[in-house]
Amino acid sequence: MYNYFSRTIQSPEGEKNATFSPTYYGDVLYYSVKIDNVDQFRMTRDDSSQWKIAAQVLPIWVHEKELELHDMIEEEAENS
Predict the structure, then answer these.
(1) How far apart are CA 45 and CA 43, in angstroms?
(2) Is the model more confident about 80 or about 13?
(3) What's the order of all strands across the beta sheet hosting 41-45?
(4) Could you tell me if 21 and 27 are in contact, meaning their C-beta atoms sit under 8 angstroms apart?
(5) Cross-strand partners of 5
(6) What mean pLDDT is predicted for residues 49-73?
(7) Among candidates 40, 39, 41, which has minimal Cα distance to 52?
(8) Is the entire prediction scored with pTM above 0.85?
(9) Where are the domains of the chain?
(10) What is the pLDDT of residues 31-57, one digit of tens each?
(11) Which among 22, 27, 38, 56 would be 20 to 30 A from 69, CA to CA?
């Protein structure tokens, strides 16, 4: 089950709070992700079941954290 949750993530400026909100568009599950001082963005599963950032203009460090964000979503799903 996919729930709303928040976690701490490291950025070049230090720790930031990341909030994850599940949203369905039709049959597709997305996570709306909001990180302090970064515009909200969406992540969705690709064909290999990896959570990926949807094409958006974001700071490079956010894209570099994509796998870590994926792991956070999966860990939360396993623990709920």
Answers:
(1) 7
(2) 13
(3) 5-11, 14-25, 28-35, 41-45, 51-53
(4) no
(5) 20
(6) 92
(7) 41
(8) no
(9) 5-79
(10) 999 999 788 899 999 999 999 998 888
(11) 27
